[in-house]
Write the structure tokens for this entry.
Amino acid sequence: MQEKPIKRFKVKPTFQILLITLLIFSLLGSCSSSSTPESYVGYGADHCVSGSLHIITLDGDKIILDAGSFYGEDGKSFPQIDQKTLTDVSAIIISHAHIDHIGRLITSVVKMGYKGPIYCTGPTKELMPTMLKMASKYGDFGKETFFFSKRSQDENRSSGKNTAAHLYADCPYGSQISPKNKKYIICSSPDLEDLGYYFCSACAQKEANEVMKQVIQQPLHLPFQISKNVTAEFLLTPHLPGSVMVLLKGEVSGHKILYTGDVGSGLSPFLPSQDPPQSADVVITEATYGTSTCDIEELKAQRENFRIKLGELVQNGKRIIIPAFVLDRSQQILYEINQGKLKGEIPQDTPIKVFGNSVEELNEIYLDFSNSTEYSPYFSAGFLENGPFPHDSYLSITGTTLSKLFDDPEERRRSISYGEIGICSSGMADNSLSLEFVKQWISDPDTVFIFVGYQDPETIGGELVEGLEKGTHTPSSIIIDGNSYQIKADILKYNCFSGHAEFNQITNFLHGVDGLKTILIVHTDQENVDPLIQAYKKEFPSINIVAPQAGQLIALP
Ligand SMILES: [Zn+2]
Ligand SMILES: [Zn+2]
Ligand SMILES: [Zn+2]
């Protein structure tokens, strides 16, 4: 009998503990499902192409996918990322080194003090310092307090030059300015030029270095832990050296989210083919080209036409100017020119000039890539065997020689002769040396401008190619900085260098993703959104299709 109370005594607390434990677990369960559901919020690239920055909540952990800059007015409808949001983030993952995918690392790390890890592939890590420096130099980070030397400004003004504006007291140049001579200006970085300044390169370098301290490279095809409950895995997509798709997996729920980053077109001779799809519950896909389709094999064949045309123009004694993006486009142009010379399509002795400091840094990185065994999985067999182009196949114009071209119109006029090919930036001729070359030679009937990338309709390049794109005529004149220029130079455009997959390539890939329940469409212009939703609903009738709005919280299944 005595055993009974003892037994009861033993049973009761066990039962109570069980009850309490059940209660705690059910409370915890309801907490995690109500306050931290799986979700997506876009801080960029929703209903626009630029500014990719997606915040994912998976199994209670917050992850940022890409942290890119906006182009033009794209960013105006998005919420600013705040300190609290950044503090909650466990990791930032970068898909590739384009500025519209990495530029806001400067904001997150340098301006807002994000201290967590930034993951990317090895080649992306190699390309990032040059690209971050450009993002720092040309990005808009709101109003900031710059300082400059009053004495330098007085000297520069008399010779019509701009003056260096610094942000950091420990800048090797800025630190030499005496307190008496030091003056301040409050403005945003893009306004500096109009006010007679330029952002100091050493200060930009410092910002890039700050970000790089937190960058950690990870290999392809090997899941790695990025937070308490989430792992990530990189799948190769042939968009840029080192570009990847990112597969996130919640280790508690088992849910998978695949972020495509920018999907490669397969046109680059430097890169291998797309990795096969994997299973995922949600895909966040880019859709730069909307619903338009094209024949990739035909585009590959167009590269031969490009080389033959260049050869003809050189032989006809034309001055050829190719505005090209510094990362990847310039290198692919150099590759095709070198191929053209090898195949006898372009005269062997044609002088090739490449203008720019950043592009030369990137050319050297590409040459190093071709000698790297560590990075061989990211490149095509042809690239590893033959390299992109010989380093002595072009003349690099950098440093003070380059600066002189900006300051001295006479030097600029002599910089590209008839029968020579010049590669310069920006790719849309809306700033830098490309713009100066347009102003200088757009009225010369023996000059040819060849555009080799997408041209925003609001840029100089966009205005110049509009007639070609619409099958009408090139306008007879163009207004730049309030001055009208007669258009007498020839304007050509080639689409065979595109780095983005078209509609069919992307949807074919998505058909291979098992278990897919939701597709989020991002990285596309506003006018593409409705046609894309219709086309995707037709392609994937049983899948939830969403094109998130700026800042809209999307609960994920
Ligand atoms: Zn890209
Ligand atoms: Zn400085
Ligand atoms: Zn992009």
In short: The domain at 39-121+218-293+499-555 is CATH 3.60.15.10 (Metallo-beta-lactamase; Chain A). The pocket of zinc ion (ligand 1) is lined by residues 96, 98, 101, 239, 262 (CB under 6 Å). The mean pLDDT is 92. The first strand starts at residue 39 and ends at 42.
